[in-house]
Amino acid sequence: MALTTPESLTPASTAVRETTAATRSTSPRRSRYARPSAGSQHKRKSVLLTAVMVVFLIYSLLPLFWLFVGSTKTQASLLNSFGLWFSGDFALFDNIAQTLTYDGGVFVRWLGNTLLYVVIGAGGATFLAALGGYGLAKFNFPGKKAVFAVVLGAVAIPGTALAVPTFLMFSQLGLTNTPWAVILPSLISPFGLYLIWTYALDSVPTEVLEAARMDGAGEIRTFFTISLRLLAPGLVTVLLFSIVGTWNNYFLPLIMLSEPTWYPLTVGLNQWNQQAQTVGGDVIYNLVITGSLITIIPIVVAFLFLQRYWQSGLAAGSVKA
Amino acid sequence: MKSTHRTARRVGRTVAAMVTGLCLVGSLAACAPGSAGGAKTGTADDIAAALQEKSTITVWSWGTPVQAAADAFQEEYPNVTVKVVNAGTGSAEYTKLQNAIKAGSGAPDVAQIEYYALPQFALSDSLADLNDFGFAELEDEFTASTWGNVSIDGGLYALPQDSGPMAMFYNKAVFDEYSIAVPTTWAEYTAAAATIHAADPSRYISSDSGDAGFATSMIWQAGGHPYTTENGTDVTIDLQDAGAKEWTEMWNPMVQDGLVSPIVGWTDEWYKALGDGTISTLLTGAWMPANFESGITESAGDWRVAPLPTYEAGEAASAENGGSSVAVLEQSTNKLVAAGFVEYLNAGPGVQLQIDGGSFPSTVADLESEGFLGYESEYFGGQKINEVLVQAAKDVVPGWSYLPFQVYSNSIFADTVGQSYENKTDLNTGLQGWQDETAAYGVEQGFTVNSK
After folding, report:
1. Cα A150 vs. chain centroid, distance in angstroms?
2. Which of A37, A133, B69, B318 is the most exposed place for a label (fewest CB within 10 A)?
3. How many CB atoms lie within 10 A of CB B233?
């Protein structure tokens, strides 16, 4: 009885396989039902809607195309050729090399800063959101409703509106003009917390937690070994939101930082752009454009790889809310 | 026990906050550890002595030539470390300065501030009065117009860094193509604008999508005095005075008939338009040649400089457009060194280093020097451009001043006068709206505003 031989396992696994087969065998039948509806879907295909979608697609892709075309041009040909097609020498690689080395390689420094802010800021925000959201979803304590109200209220306040008050506070603490001034506010993500909260309500069964408690696992162990894994898809969504938010963060670092050595890419690139407006300043639009292209590549890659989590996470939030 | 402890801590914190608050309200020097460097006043000897001691100052400036001057300064005074930081260009820097001033810490020792923004910082006591360091005697070294810009309400709040007497930069190739003589009056200028646009509708004599700096400079040239400030808080605004009306009467048809291009200045599109002949004149400050050379390479050799056209034939009148000054912050704990650096930068060896970097100076001796006047610019076809530009500096109409909240006011220009540009309607309506909103803001800020 206690000894389970490989053979004794076989019937069970066969059963599983049979179940899968059964599930699979239902699908042709389902698709038979589905066929008429697929036909009606075909009829419903609207030329107008498709056209609108195509317009939106072009609208979204055109700036990216312009960016790419622009980054293959030299500063001179950038200004005297048509913007949406290639012209003159293919200077992309030269531009990339210049972007990375201009002004003592400050672009690389900005890239490093952005990565630092993203890894610590977005990573920390996700972790804190997981702790808070899980706690609020799975534990009852006095004042929970008040916390709920505060979190919901915080979602409604744009970070930009808080930038200046935060600056004044950080200035008292002596934190302005340090990386902490960007990282600390990035750690707070009320929206992420709310998302994890609603996600945890569904995906972490209270029975599982009770079972773990019965078996003597402490709350912290339960959280890290069981709940965190169940929360994974929600976490990825929050992580993506935070990464995109931190990567694109402009106003906060603009307000907080005065030394270019701590700038993230967004603020640094704008400084390069403004150089064209200063007396005797180098006009380096080609580097601004190439720098922008380099800046968006990592975020595009991250989005493409993680987009299915993004979608499922969005759906989770919308259904529960 | 616990609650007592907490209360005690809270009281402690409150006291600490109150002390900090007191430090903010009172003079900073009283709370800062007393040191010679923190002195609020000093003679030339005090400054010279302070420069020999070990110290570090931070300078906020977006102008590239400042770094060269800072390097030379540190070579001469090896004990002083000068950190030049580009904290943003123009209003981006002012936002940071304003925040740091409000917070009570984080401001640099020295900052570059454009003339139009200087009164805002000067009248809010954010800047050190350089009269306390004996800089009043430097007056004769600077042009009257730039000195006038840094002398505010009896104080001296900065030293002029560069200047921007306006001139007309024109594309000679385009003018020759249509056989247009170089306009000397605004009547000739508007006629030339019509000729160019009629001959080739894609071409314009200039571009103006509504720019506060340009509008105020044009009112200045026309003899307007729309802003006056007395006792630091009594402000009079009259954007419908004779000068303002003279300008709008001339410029209204240019905007309404579409004779000026709506291309926004300082964008890549604008650089492109200046390069390919779409825009054939530029009415701007004397600091522009360096930007021509670095940014508008396509039409090198085609451009020339002429005096700004005037309303009466034979009359000479110009105005300042742009240009910066360098100030010492009240927050600085090292004002002697900071003042020493400002003097070195703008009235000492730093001036020539900045000229080499493309600046148009504000010091009389440099403007009058033979080397400067005789410089033949290759970009401008060998023309001795500085002869024209220096004459423009002398022709600047005296008596102009900006508002003590000009930075904010300029930021709402697009919402008011910008609408007139956008809809091609009467600029006077826009100016009136601009005046009303500016006055309302001034009142909110505690000024006594007389809006005419």
Report:
1. 24
2. A37
3. 15
Q: How far apart are CA A189 and CA A313, in angstroms?
A: 15
Residue ranges making up the domain that contains A142: 105-320
Give one DSSP letter per residue of B366-416, joined into a string.
Answer: HHH-HHHHT--BTTTTTB-HHHHHHHHHHTBPS-----TTHHHHHHTHHHH
Q: Measured at the alpha carbon of residue B21, what is the angle toward residues A254 and A168, in degrees to the nearest 5?
A: 15
CB contacts < 8 Å between A and B, how many?
101
| Coil vs helix vs strand at A182 | helix
- Shortest Cα distance, chain A CAs vs residue B371, angstroms: 20
pLDDT given at position A25 = 40
> Which among A38, A40, A39, A56 has a CA at the least distance from the CA of A48?
A56
Neighbours of A39 (CB within 10 A): 10
Closest chain A residue to B290, measured at CA: A280
CATH number for position A298: 1.10.3720.10
Please indicate, yes or no, if residue B426 is contained in any of the structural domains. yes
Report yes or no on A245 lying in a domain: yes
Residue A38 binned pLDDT confidence (cut-offs 50, 70, 90): very low
- Residue ranges making up the domain that contains B443: 166-319+390-451
CA atoms within 13 A on the CB side of A208: 15
Q: Give the nearest chain A residue to B278 (CA atoms).
A: A80
Q: Do B294 and A279 touch (CB under 8 A)?
A: no
Task: Report the gap between the CA of B187 and the closest CA in chain A (Å).
Answer: 30
Low-confidence ranges of chain B (pLDDT < 70): 1-39
pLDDT class of A311 with cuts at 50, 70, 90? low
CB contact under 8 A, A168 and B102: yes
Inter-chain CB proximity A171 and B99 less than 8 Å: yes
